[in-house]
Amino acid sequence: MNVLIVYAHPEPRSLNGALRDFAVQRLEAAGHQVQVSDLYAMGWKATLDADDHLDYQPGSQFSPSGDSRLAFANGRQSADIAQEQDKLRWADALILQFPLWWFTMPAILKGWVDRVYAYGFAYGVGEHSDSRWGNRYGEGNLAGKRAMLIVTTGGWDSHYSPRGINGPIDDLLFPIQHGILHYPGFDVLPPFLVYRTSRMDEVRFAAVSAGLGERLDNLWHTGPIPYRKQNSGDYEIPALTLRPDLSPGRSGFATHLGQG
Ligand code: FAD
User: Which residues fall within 8 angstroms of residue 202, CB to CB, at 6 or more apart?
Assistant: First the structure.
């Protein structure tokens, strides 16, 4: 299998760097092909702008989505964007690895998503009409692939528990796991989380890497988070609200989980 790791940490000698190296070795030892997009090492350009469209005419009004659609359709995207899309087509599984910074991914990784997820590639895919809002949330160009987050946090696991002060980790990661990964079609596996990173030593690192190794060994067998699919009949058309008979009286992120 082919695994793409998109990795966002500025320091290779960090905890994240050690976990990244461990993951690559473990996957390769199991016979998988691995590519790493090391965003800081690549000098990844994080900002989406007119330079991303090779046919952009200086002085004309730039449309972030409209120019993305044209550049993708006409093969006129910036080369770094097209290369990352090729890696995604190649991959059977995508791993996004990052330290939690201000309760989300580092800006450089968000910039990878903003730019690589072009109109026609990750969104704006499929029929758009009064009765259908495209192929998304479980369908799309990346359907059939698996995805997983590896996230480290300074905060304790209790801070991210259901009543923890930071908010539940499943809620904080919902925009990434549901909005960025499930949206273009990925099956999203439960995240691998490392809390309280300041309390790391060799003994704990051995335990953490053993846990990560187990998750990587089971990358193809672990059941995905049971997010509902947009076009499964669970949502009313055209409002795209959950049918009233499903999770009655409830709202919030967890209502978008089905039976699994
Ligand atoms: P490092 O700092 O590199 O290492 C952490 C510890 O692990 C160190 O003690 C190091 O010695 C040890 N270590 C490293 N490698 C090994 C090894 N191979 N074996 C044994 N020990 C090792 N946290 C939150 O919870 N929520 C937030 O919203 C949040 N926002 C942040 C925003 C910013 C801008 C920053 C800079 C930090 C934020 N943090 C937050 C904390 C952040 O999530 C952690 O600092 C980060 O996850 C730690 O990962 P690291 O790879 O940088 O660890």
Answer: none
